[in-house]
Amino acid sequence: MPKTYPNLIDGELVETAATMEVLNPANEEVIGLVPSCGEAELDRAVAAARRAFKTWSKTPIEERRAVIQKMAKVISDNHEELYRLLTSEQGKPHEQAKGEIMGAAYMAGSQATLALDDVINEDSAARLSRTRRVPVGVVGGIVPWNFPVMMAMQKIAPAMLSGCTIVLKPSPFTPLATLRIAELIKDVAPAGVVNIITGEDSLGPLITGHPDIDKITFTGSTATGKKIMEGASKDLKRITLELGGNDASIVLPDADVSKVAEQLFWSSFSNAGQICVAAKRVYIHEDIYDEMSQAIADYARTVKVGDGSEQGTGVGPIQNKKQFDRVCELIEDAKDNGYKFLVGGDVDPSGSGYYVPITIIDNPPEDARIVAEEQFGPVMPLMKFSTEAEVIERANNSDYGLAGAVWTGDPEKGVRIAEQLETGTVWVNEYLHLSPFAPFGGHKQSGFGAEYGLEGLKEFTYAQVITVKKDALV
Ligand code: NAD
Q1: Which of 121, 192, 463, 467 sits CB 3.0–4.6 Å from 52 for a disulfide?
Q2: 216 within ligand 1 shell (Cβ under 6 A)
Q3: Confidence band (pLDDT; 50, 70, 90) for 108?
Q4: 3 state SS of 176
Q5: What does pTM read for this prediction?
Q6: For residues 222 and 442, is the Cβ–Cβ distance under 8 A?
Q7: Is the CB–ligand 1 distance for residue 146 below 6 Å?
């Protein structure tokens, strides 16, 4: 019988009669059971968060900061157990799972150092006007399956620092490491400040529609993001949405093939391509296209696809069957249209586990599905371009606007191009670097608002302006 991982509600570990199974995507075996919560458990968690808010919102920020940092320490102290559990539910290789756990602890601890100082708007003979930030209240956090622990902590930490309390729902596919963290931090945060409840997708709309939740912070697909915005409109809940992307990388003719090829590979294939900011369309200048594409393909052939818990695995399985089917469909579409495959393309249907081979497609047309859609899997389309103006237009020709990258021997030129890309983040000569102190968010249909940095923290607060007339008659 697999182990049951309880929820955390009001400082207590809670189980429900109804449970959900969690699978290991490397072999499709059941590795854990988690509660299947409905309205009753949600109400209980929200009521606890509401009660805790009264005290937590008045607790000095230094004390709140210390609690978050203690939580971050608990996570890093237990990283070995947590990253193994994360690999078993999410699929990513151990090294990458360790990176996620340690990264989540680092980002949470660092975010906790941010301050929400008052701002003086006017200090004249006539009046003193000051803006202060007040917490919005009870937050509903909804998390996807690609970086479950990182995403959970990037919602929990700023919510707590701002003085909010939170009810967090992990993805039904990947709740285990988050629930193990819930057990570990049970006595670190005061009861009701952090509540973690699991349920099917149907629990999501109950959170969005709950009358006693004041804000939703969501990471997931654009389609679900739109539903959340609609649901939140009923009582004008505050929302932060981190959604999908179809991120373009642009490789200029002066890029050093020997240095860039391997980095380009990992910018697409880390976490089996299941990263919102992964390089999903790679445009390479025609002068170096053949050399660069060969170098990427040669490197790709050295990378092992397999169970993330096995030594030497670089690319693990796709996290779930639905996503596996979608990626397979995009590969089939590329085959049906006669596109050329530099590497991979043949999915082995026998055996267990959701494995897709590393697949690189050679110069498909711009309207190919694998170029126009977010693949979220280990399939990389490489395209040729001729001029800067052309590639900028092609990169921007998307409803998404999450991230992008420019690879060049001339960083100034890289920045000039970066400034013309319609995305929230652009990297020049690196990839996937996020800072706890810089806002991360999407333009266009990639999101609404931001996470991280002061901008991200402020999303958990309202501005309140207090104006005192100094020469008033009393
Ligand atoms: P998803 O939208 O299917 O699910 C995300 C979460 O929303 C899950 O917890 C799910 O149970 C819940 N949910 C489902 N339906 C809901 C509803 N109607 N109302 C409220 N909640 C609901 O996304 P996913 O498949 O888990 O994740 C993949 C997507 O997430 C990709 O598109 C990816 O680009 C995006 N993503 C974005 C970022 C970012 O920071 N911008 C980061 C990671 C992933």
Answers
A1: 192
A2: no
A3: very high
A4: helix
A5: 0.97
A6: no
A7: yes
The C-alpha angle 376, 378, 379, rounded to 5 degrees, equals 90
Tell me how crowded residue 468 is: count the other CB atoms within 10 A of its CB.
10
Amino acid at 385: F
Q: Is the dihedral of CA 37, 40, 41, 46 positive or negative?
A: positive
Nearest to 285 by CA among 185, 194, 410: 410
Q: What pLDDT digit, counting tens, does each position of 269-280 carry?
A: 999 999 999 999
Q: Where are the domains of the chain?
A: 7-243+446-465, 247-428
Tokens standing for 306? Answer: 């397999």
Q: Look up residue 122 and give its two tokens.
A: 């006017």
> What fold, for 247-428?
Aldehyde Dehydrogenase; Chain A, domain 2 (3.40.309)
Nearest CA to ligand 1 atom 6: 144
- Please give the distance, rounded to the nearest whole angstrom, from the Cα atom of residue 286 to the centre of ligand 1: 36
Q: Which atom from ligand 1 is nearest to the alpha carbon of 276?
A: 34
**Whether residue 276 lies in the annotated active site:** yes
Q: Is 242 a catalytic residue?
A: yes
Give 285's Cβ-side CA count (13 Å radius): 15
The CATH number for 7-243+446-465, chosen from 3.40.50.720, 3.90.1570.10, 3.40.605.10, 3.40.50.1980, is 3.40.605.10
Count of helices and strands (H, E) across the chain: 15, 24
Nearest residue (CA) to ligand 1, atom 9:
171
Atom of ligand 1 nearest to the CA of 172: 11
- pLDDT tens digits along 277-318: 999 999 999 999 999 999 999 999 999 999 999 999 999 999
Please tell me which residue in 41, 242, 451, 459 is annotated as part of the active site: 242
Give me the pLDDT at residue 404, please. Answer: 98
- Ligand 1 pocket check for 171: Cβ under 6 Å: yes
Note the pLDDT of residue 349: 84
Residue nearest to ligand 1 atom 8, measured at CA: 171
Tokens representing 47 are 């009521």
pLDDT of residue 471: 82
91 lines ligand 1 (CB under 6 A): no
315 and 303 in contact (C-beta within 8 Å)? yes
Q: Residue 330 Cα, ligand 1 centroid: separation in angstroms?
A: 20
Q: At what angle do helices 61-77 and 94-111 cross, to 10 degrees?
A: 170
Cβ–ligand 1 distance for 402 under 6 Å, the answer yes
Using 50, 70 and 90 to split pLDDT, how confident is the model at 136? Answer: very high
Is 443 close to ligand 1, i.e. is its CB under 6 Å away?
A: no
Span from the CA of 472 to the centroid of ligand 1 (angstroms): 53
pLDDT tens, 254-272? 999 999 999 999 999 999 9
Q: Are 330 and 373 in contact (CB under 8 A)?
A: yes
* pLDDT reported for residue 1: 86
